């Protein structure tokens, strides 16, 4: 069971020199979220404990703070109240908001020029798109992901499909979905062809359609969106048609959280979700499954996603230095390998994949390579100033189109108009 608060105490504090150690130690608070099933929380707790054991001059209070949304609220509330954590894992998309709130500082100010090159420069470029702006590095990739397609190989074989071949493009996903959708004698669907969640992180999985369609939802400066681009409209029409026209996906809003369970229980033969669920699926799917890049349209493509480490402003220089050292350690190849193997999240640096542990893991379980290889085609997750408001406008447009309340064009025109009003002061 995940405890609400885990305090990792150094071994030194348990000795007869406790008072002295405590007086000299640097104390850090570290907030972290969990958005997937599996061993994410336990792994963070273990890694934090390992660091503290090796660094008796640092005490870290690692605080599990719920979902990404919950963690973001708690961190900002604490910062506004003058008592921020020194460090937090928050969504990469919150970077502009945190900058605008003036609660974080760039990592560049606390590392050497050599570290800027070897450490900061060593992360996958696609992950850094949501981590840097204005020539500064505000986020360090950690809990990072891309969405991927999972499929039930047994269901494929039963439908007369090659169990080892996923749909390569949009047309094939419809074609396969029709063969995979099953109904009982009363005409009720017992197994859908595909499940793409549209509630929870709707904009994120939607980028798995808009990107292959050839659209980019927002610019890199975070002050302009392209919500009603014709290619975005085409992507939304396709998503709606999966249910309304083709009948291969459950109609209406589809929740994020229950999606792996629906897959395990054979309620859907294919699902789109984060690679961060990979270990969860591996441990719990009662059938042989496959993992593939998202289907292509004009191109391959998917958004990056997940969380970065952020360094909070209102702390001492000693605390900032200790926090940076901890982040350097936990993102180093050996620790990144432990994290990736335990969770399914993408090890955020190429050198992590060169460790013996990752080489053995990938050889034993090749699906682990899919999300990494998809980074070649990945784009930044939707992120802007006033990100909550802008994203909500876009999510509302998706929901209205999916519910049949508005056409894709009308819904996206409205979302773009709202985004323009919100972002005008930042241009």
How would you sum up this structure in a few lines?
The chain has helices spanning 18-24, 40-54, 68-80, 95-100, 113-118, 125-128, 153-158, 170-180, 202-213, 230-244, 259-264, 278-284, 317-330, 333-343, 356-364, 368-374, 387-402, 408-423, and strands spanning 6-8, 26-32, 58-64, 87-91, 104-105, 132-133, 136-137, 140-145, 147-152, 182-183, 189-191, 270-274, 289-292, 302-303, 305-312, 378-379. With 427 residues, the chain is an alpha+beta fold. The strands form 5 sheets. Strands 1, 2, 3, 4, 5, 8 and 15 form a 7-stranded mixed sheet that branches.
CATH topology of the largest domain: D-Maltodextrin-Binding Protein, domain 2
Shape: globular
**SSE class:** alpha+beta
**The CATH superfamily title of the largest domain:** Periplasmic binding protein-like II
The total domain count is 2
The largest pleated sheet is described as: 7 strands, mixed
> Per DSSP, what share of the residues sits in E-state strands of 2 or more residues?
15-25%
Outline the low-pLDDT stretches.
1-23
Which value, in Å, is the CA radius of gyration?
22 Å
Question: What top-tier CATH class of the largest domain fits best?
Answer: Alpha Beta
Task: Tell me the total number of β-strands.
Answer: 16
Tally of contiguous helical segments:
18
Name of the CATH architecture of the largest domain: 3-Layer(aba) Sandwich
Distance between the termini: 46 Å
The share of residues in helices is: 40-55%
Q: Roughly what is the average pLDDT, rounded to an integer? A: 92
């Amino acid at each position: 069971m995940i405890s609400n608060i885990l305090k990792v105490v150094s071994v030194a504090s348990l000795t007869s020199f406790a008072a002295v150690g405590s007086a000299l130690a640097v104390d850090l608070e570290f907030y972290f979220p969990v958005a997937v099933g599996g061993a994410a929380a336990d792994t963070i707790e273990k890694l934090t404990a390992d660091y503290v054991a090796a660094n008796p001059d640092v005490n870290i209070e690692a605080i599990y703070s719920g979902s990404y949304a919950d963690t973001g609220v708690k961190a900002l509330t604490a910062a506004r109240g003058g008592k921020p954590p020194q460090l937090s894992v928050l969504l990469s998309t919150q970077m502009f908001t945190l900058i605008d709130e003036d609660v974080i500082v760039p990592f560049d100010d606390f590392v050497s020029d050599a570290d800027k090159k070897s450490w900061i420069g060593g992360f996958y470029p696609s992950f850094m798109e949501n981590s840097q702006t204005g020539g500064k590095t505000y986020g360090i990739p950690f809990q990072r992901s891309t969405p991927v397609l999972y499929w039930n190989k047994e269901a494929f074989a039963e439908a007369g499909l090659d169990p080892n071949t996923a749909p390569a493009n949009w047309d094939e996903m419809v074609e396969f979905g029709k063969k995979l959708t099953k109904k009982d004698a009363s005409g009720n669907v017992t197994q859908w062809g595909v499940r793409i969640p549209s509630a929870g992180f709707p904009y994120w999985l939607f980028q798995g359609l808009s990107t292959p369609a050839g659209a980019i939802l927002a610019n890199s400066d975070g002050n302009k969106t392209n919500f009603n681009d014709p290619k975005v409209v085409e992507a939304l029409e396709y998503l709606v048609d999966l249910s309304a026209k083709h009948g291969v996906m459950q109609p209406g809003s589809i929740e994020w959280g229950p999606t792996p369970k629906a897959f395990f229980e054979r309620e859907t033969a294919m699902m789109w979700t984060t690679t961060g669920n990979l270990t969860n699926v591996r441990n719990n799917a009662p059938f042989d499954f496959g993992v593939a890049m998202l289907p292509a349209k004009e191109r391959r493509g998917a958004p990056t996603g997940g969380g970065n480490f952020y360094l909070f402003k209102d702390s001492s220089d000693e605390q900032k230095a200790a926090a940076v050292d901890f982040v350097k350690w936990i993102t180093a190849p050996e620790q990144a390998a432990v994290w990736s193997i335990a969770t399914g999240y993408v090890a955020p640096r190429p050198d992590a994949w060169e460790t013996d542990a990752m080489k053995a893991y990938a050889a034993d379980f090749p699906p682990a390579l899919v999300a990494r290889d998809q980074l070649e085609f990945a784009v930044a997750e939707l992120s802007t100033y006033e990100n909550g408001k802008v994203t909500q406008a876009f999510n509302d447009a998706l929901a209205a189109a999916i519910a049949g309340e508005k056409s894709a064009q009308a819904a996206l025109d409205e979302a773009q108009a709202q985004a323009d009003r919100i972002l005008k002061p930042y241009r």
